[in-house]
Amino acid sequence: MTHLKNRPVTQDVFSKSSILVIGDVMLDRYQWGEVTRISPEAPVPVVKVMSKNEVPGGAGNVALNLAGLGCPVCLIGLCGNDAEGERLKEILNKKGINTALQVDEGRSTTTKTRVMANNQQLLRLDEEKTEQPAPGVLKCILDRFKEKLPSHRAVVMSDYGKGVLSSPETCEQIITMCKAADIPVIVDPKGRDWDRYRHATGVTPNTAELELVSGTETGGSQKALVSRARAIRETYDLELILVTRGPDGMCLIIDDEPEDIIPAESREVFDVSGAGDTVIATFAASLGAGLSVSDAARIANTAAGIVVAKIGTQPVTFFELDMALKKISGDGSGTNSPKLFDLDAALHQARAWRENGDKIVFTNGCFDLLHPGHIDLLNRARSFGRRLIVGLNTDSSVKRLKGAGRPILNENDRAAILSALESVNMVVMFDQDTPSELISALKPDVLVKGSDYKPEDVVGRDIVEAYGGEIRLVELLDGYSTTGIVDRIPGSANNIKKSSSQSSS
Fold first, then answer.
1. What is the DSSP string of 261-293?
2. What DSSP letter does each residue of 424-444 carry, written as one string?
3. Residue 204 and residue 279 in contact, taking contact as beta carbons nearer than 8 Å
4. What share of the chain is helix, strand, coil (3-state, %, to 5)?
5. Taking a C-beta distance cutoff of 8 angstroms, is the pair 425, 389 a contact?
6. If I label 151, which of 91, 393, 406, 491 is the partner at 20 to 30 A Cα–Cα?
7. Is residue 25 a contact partner of residue 79, using CB atoms and an 8 Å limit?
8. Which positions ≥6 away from 266 have C-beta within 8 Å?
9. pLDDT at position 402
10. Which domains does the chain have, with CATH numbers?
C-alpha cells in the first residue's frame, strides 16, 4: 500500500475503477532475433529469428495496461473479419478484457509487425486502412458505447488516426454522452485538428503533438510549452492538459492554477513504444478511482518510467507500479532496483511474459562480489530464452551457507548490481537454503547451473523436468570465485587464518 496526497493506492482502489476504452485497435507482432552477418543479396542485416509474439496495440494496449492495474475494462473499436482480428480478440479475452469490437467487412485488422534484433527495432511493416468507416459501422460503434457507458467511471478515447475517431460527429457524440453522465473523458490525440476533442475533460499529448496543434515549436522552453498548453486548453474548452515530455517528465495544466511540473523518473530508456498508452491508462484509472488530478498525473508519470525500461510494447502491472511508488514515498518497502520483485509480483510478471510467448530461464546463487565468471554465466543463461530470472539468496541464507563474514555485500547491494546487467530481467530473493520453493512457484522453462554441478545434483531438476522443462549446465570461466577473490584481499579473515596456520607450523 502506498500513500499519495489524498488516499492510499491499493489494488482494491483500481479494482473498483471500471474504464471504457474506445478507439483504434491493432495487433502488434514481434519477431525477435539476432544479427550476425550482412546479406549477400543486398546491404541489409540478416536476422535469425529466435522467437515471435503478438500483443494488442493502440487502444488495445491501453486496455491491456488497465487490466494490468487490475481495472475492469471494456474495449470498443474495429477489426476485420480475418485471422488477425480473431487473434486480437483471443488475446484480449485471455487478459479478462471485455471486448466489444465491431467487425468491418470492408477493412482488414490493423497489424504492425516489428523485427527486433540485439534489443533494437530494425524494421516495421504496417498493414492498415485509415479511411473513416462507413456511417453504418460508426453507428454500431456508438450504439455499443451508449450501452456500455453507464457502468464505467472514466472513458479513454485512444486516437491513432485509423478511422474510429476521425469523424468530428462521432467524437462530439462520445464527449456529449460522457458529459451528460458526469463521467470524465480523457483523449490521447492525433493530428493537428483538435476541434473534434472540444469539451473533453482532458487530453494527454506529447510535446511534438502539442507543437503540431499549436503551429509553433517550443524550442525546449518550459515557459513556451506552458503558454501553448494554456492557450490550447482555452481554445478547445478542456479542463486539463497533461503534456508528456520524455526525459523532462510531465506538465499538468488545470484551469487557471499554476502549472504542475512533474520530473521524470530516472530510469534507463530502452523503448518508448506504448508509453503514451500507459500514461493515459494509468491517469484515467486513477481519476476513475477518485484520486486527485495531481496524484493521477504523478502515478501516470511513475508508470511511464516503468514501461520505457522494457523492450517492445509491454503494459505496466500493479505490482510494478506499487513497488515504484513505495520507493518514491520512502516507506522502506520499496527498492532502488526496478528489476527486484517480491514473489507475488514475480509470479504476475512471469505469467505475463509466458502469455506473450516468452521463454523463461532461471538461475540462482549468492552472487557475492560479482565477478567475470558470474557475468559469463548470466549471459549464457540468458541465451537460452527471452527472460532471465535470478534467484538471489538473502543475507541470512548466505550466512547459513557460507558462514560468518559472509555475505560481503548486503542483499540490496547485490540485487542492485545484478539488476544493472542487461542480461538480467528479474531478481527475486529467497530466504531458504535452496531455491526449490521459488522454482516450484515460477515454473521456468529452463533451469541453468554451472558445469561444476552434475545434472542429478541440480536443486529443482526434478521439479522442472516434471512439467517438461529442461536443465542446462554451462561451462564456467576458469580462475574465478568469490572465495578466491576474498583470499587475495589483505587482512581478510581467510588470509589471517592462513597466516596463523603458517606461523604455528
1. EEPPP----S--TTHHHHHHHHHHHHHHTT--H
2. --EEEEE-SSSSHHHHHHH--
3. yes
4. 40, 25, 35
5. yes
6. 91
7. yes
8. 305
9. 85
10. 2-334 (3.40.1190.20), 343-487 (3.40.50.620)
3-class secondary structure, 411 = helix
Angle at CA of residue 400, ends 397 and 401, nearest 5°: 85
Catalytic residue among 277, 295, 358, 395: 277
Interatomic CA distance for residues 339 and 478, integer angstroms: 29
Going by C-alpha positions, the residue among 272, 471, 383 that lies closest to residue 48 is 383
C-alpha cell at 190: 492525433
Given a contact cutoff of 8 angstroms between Cβ atoms, the answer to whether 179 and 199 are in contact is yes
Which of 216, 287, 276, 281 has the alpha carbon at shortest distance from 250? 276
CB of 155 closer than 8 Å to CB of 165: no
Determine phi and psi for 132, rounding to 5 degrees: -65, 135
- Pick the closest to residue 58 from 136, 164, 142, 199 (CA basis): 164
pLDDT of residue 505: 35
Are 71 and 96 contacting, i.e. CB atoms less than 8 angstroms apart?
Answer: no
- 255 classed as catalytic: no
| Dihedral angle over CA of 165, 166, 169, 175, nearest 10 | 30
C-alpha cell of 485? Answer: 577473490
This prediction's pTM: 0.71
The pLDDT value given to residue 485? 59
Q: What does the alpha-carbon distance between residue 347 and residue 355 come to, in Å, rounded to a whole number?
A: 12
Per-residue model confidence (pLDDT) at position 115: 93
Helices (H) and strands (E) in the chain, counts: 18, 21
What is the predicted pLDDT for the residue at 504?
37
How many C-beta atoms surround the C-beta of residue 478 within 10 A? 6
Integer Rg of the chain from CA: 26
- Cell numbers that stand for 441 in this block: 512457484
Of 103, 91, 83, 87, which is closest to residue 67 (Cα–Cα)?
A: 91
> Which residues on adjacent β-strands are paired with residue 35?
47
What is the rounded distance in angstroms from the CA atom of residue 66 to the CA atom of residue 321? 12
Residue 315: how many other CB atoms lie within 10 Å? 27
Measured in whole angstroms, how far is the alpha carbon of residue 241 from the centre of its chain? 24
User: What does the alpha-carbon distance between residue 210 and residue 171 come to, in Å, rounded to a whole number?
Assistant: 19
Nearest in space to 452 (alpha carbons), one of 384, 377, 357, 382: 377
CB 447 within 8 A of CB 469: yes
